[in-house]
Design goal:
The structure is a homodimer of 450-residue chains. Chain A is of the alpha/beta class. Chain A has 2 domains: 185 residues, Glycogen Phosphorylase B (Rossmann fold), CATH 3.40.50; 198 residues, Glycogen Phosphorylase B (Rossmann fold). The first copy, chain A, is built from 18 helices and 16 strands. Chain A is globular, with a radius of gyration of 22 Å.
Amino acid sequence: MSYGRDAGGERTVSRGGGGLATALRGLVEQHDVTWIANAMTDEDRVVADEDQRGTILIAQGRDAYARFYNVIANPTLWFVQHMLWDLARTPDWDNTRHDAWTNGYVPVNLRMARATLAELDRDPSAAVFFQDYHLYLAPAFVRGERPDALLAHFVHIPWPEADAWTVLPPAIRHDVLAGLLANDVVGFHTRRWQRNFVRSCVDILGATADGDIVEHDGRRTLVTGHPIGIDPSELDELKQDENVLAREREIEASRPDQLVLRVDRTDPSKNVVRGLRAFGLMLDRHPELRGRVRMLALLDPSRQDIPEYVDYVAAVEREARSLGDAVDLRVGDDFARSVAAYKQFDVLLVNAVFDGLNLVSKEGPYVNERDGVLVLSENAGAHEELGEWAVSVNPFDVSAQADAIHEALTMSATERRHRAEAIRAHVRAHDVGAWGDMQLADLDRVRSLP
Amino acid sequence: MSYGRDAGGERTVSRGGGGLATALRGLVEQHDVTWIANAMTDEDRVVADEDQRGTILIAQGRDAYARFYNVIANPTLWFVQHMLWDLARTPDWDNTRHDAWTNGYVPVNLRMARATLAELDRDPSAAVFFQDYHLYLAPAFVRGERPDALLAHFVHIPWPEADAWTVLPPAIRHDVLAGLLANDVVGFHTRRWQRNFVRSCVDILGATADGDIVEHDGRRTLVTGHPIGIDPSELDELKQDENVLAREREIEASRPDQLVLRVDRTDPSKNVVRGLRAFGLMLDRHPELRGRVRMLALLDPSRQDIPEYVDYVAAVEREARSLGDAVDLRVGDDFARSVAAYKQFDVLLVNAVFDGLNLVSKEGPYVNERDGVLVLSENAGAHEELGEWAVSVNPFDVSAQADAIHEALTMSATERRHRAEAIRAHVRAHDVGAWGDMQLADLDRVRSLP
């Protein structure tokens, strides 16, 4: 979450843009947790100076934070892990990027580790849960001071194989992996990323692996694959929220016979341009559907201080314009509208290039009221769970995506219902609470390792 | 090799641009071999109609061949295997690319398989050696007709892990892998590509692996890693060739105190732009070397009918111009000049993004007469053999490449000599003949499998 000020000068709290903030909020609310995070906004920096029960906001140096966030975490690590480079041209590890590592990512991780150590002083028996690709080095800093602390790390984005990690210079990729292996548990959303992580530890560090246990430098780390879930009760409530109902009336007022929906951040990994092309190609192949089917693309603009992201939004807008009335593109942060659209879609398109899990593919079908069909990329983490009930697509195969959208639009009501119910049942049974329980069970397992 | 006509109308035979043609020519000359190849030039098509002892040139349909070569083999498969995509944007599997697969790559492979079957009719006991990424489907076509034929395949370019293969639609990547596993032996230049291939068979096909044996569909395939070598006697002769000596006098006449050399095709995988940047950065850091050190970049223009390649040459020329006199860039096909420059370099830069092996890193040090230092990318296949005697660089780390070039330029004479002699001894001992012998030993091994 992030703090700001409204027009009247009152403090506001906003929902984070990514799926991670959503998923963790539930967990944090249900346990006795201290949340340590970097201050991101000016108001965050004010909050950082106050005594916040359960929340510690770290005001990093502005320059260090900018290097950490806008050069290394996004886009360097994000681009490595989603395999988004144009390797003949980018990236360059030049003076700027090396400096951003040494004077950005490293000290930000160190400050986070120090705050964690201070909490461990206060409560030595606490378990520490590191989240995601921003904090790969912190666990090793903490481990150096607390050999017996219980440390777990969850990586919410894909983990590619060793070849992709050669985009990082040897010493840096070594420190990333060794940092993660300073934890007792390292978790991923899928068996695929789990497998890739174990292999990359073997290939890059020379670690040894025995099933899901990796041994390196005299320590053992449990590596797990637990897909995160949604919070059904939160979504049940949201469905009835006034703002959502208002948005839903707007969508209903102008809805075509059939609605193809996508809901994403404007991230190159989400593959919005190819999705638009596929929709256009589907209409070319089935002109009888023109005017009867529309694509609604709800895109939350993210990371607009990174040039690649600005360029990508421009490319999306160009592609959408070329399709005219057939596409309704909305670039903005409006979660109520997303939930309203979830209720209304006939086809939900999730065609990510690579995606750690993709919560939209769970939230959408759970909320949907029309037995809408999920078209799902084989490279989205959620495909391991939901693939059998979705229409699977290869994210690079625009032709097959066009056919998949058409297959979804023309699927029989019986088949749609069968698939939609199966997804809803799965998503309800494997919710965020179950995911949290698995994290805790992992801790019990590593505590009892011989 | 390729046939043409000179100004006087006489038939000419030219050396292929790639390392593969070089490497195989020695092998073909030393054994009783029928060479089956696609006709590439107009003169090739004339030769195809003649009765050529030992050479069968297949005149494929022009459209099918263009789809096969200019859409699928280069750049699709080449780009997949060297991980050169900008995945948020390219490739699209649209109508054009699907058509190029179905009506280009598939029928060209089928015709090649038919020619192979005709040879097997003539000599049923012959072993078949398929070469490289142009012929992934042919082995399965041959196997379907000849269950007992002895088939081996050598892949001369990198083999990436399963994630990178998702750039191909599922049915296509399945056919690529199943096609290769129709062979009795599949060979690569390194243990790294061998390992990646075994893993991708497991991940994509669900094959089982036991060490270097992969079992799929009731058949077993031996997967090997044998780095190819050079032909020392050919290079010994070339060093004394009149054309080479003439080129050498030219280089000597204008040589700086120290010469940094690169010799490559103008392929994005060769990483020429970053190499130039690194050289410029080195001069910025060590201005005392300005005027005393020059980079000579000898680039053989290749695949100039593919837009990505034309763009890349333009980017190389821009970067070189920005460095002024410090760089002597020559774009042209002049092997005599390359050999002359091999003799003269003080530092040889091989910084490929990814490279199956890289023969320059063996040819250059073998021919060199100044105890020149090899700066070698960790992602070049030859790094497995030569890394310990080279200055290793990460291909994306421009800053480290600048330091590596400086380290090589300032290395003590004793250290240079020690390393250069070690590389020459290795290259001489592991020549192309030894590589051929390993292929034959692999056949003996699979013949004797229980």
